[in-house]
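Troubleshooting log. The previous structure file for this entry was overwritten by mistake, so regenerating from the original sequence record. Sequence copied from the archived sheet and checked twice against the printout by T.R.
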Amino acid sequence: MKPHILIVVFALLFSLRSAAQDPSQPAQRTITAEEGTKFIVDQLAPKLNLNKGQKDTLSVIFLKFMDDIQKYHAETNEKVFAYMTKTRDDKVKNLLRDSTKYYKYLITLEDIKKQPMHQNQGAPPHNMGGTHNRMGGGGMNGGRTY
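Regenerated output below.
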């Protein structure tokens, strides 16, 4: 009789654990540098009236930035992250060659950072906590690296 009781208890515990999970919350995954770059460029390009060449160059700038953040673990070092951000923004400024467009770029980038990720045009939710980390932690800007 005792084995039957154990089976019932385990089945009950398993069903309670399954019910405790929120099925409306999809599994979180980490966004790739390519996905993040595409999202950012797709948001910026129309507002800055970029041509194909400028769009491609902007993609390269952001992809390198995101890869470097991950490669050098800059999300945990504010000085390194600030340096990489400044370098990225200087490259964008040289690409745009127009102070009005650059100002629009900065404003649009801030607007993108403020958007909840689940509203980012179907971009999958991901764990991007950390001071400036695409991969986890908790802190400023929700950890977005753009």
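The helical segments are 2-20, 33-48, 52-71, 78-96, 99-114. Archived copy saved in two places this time.
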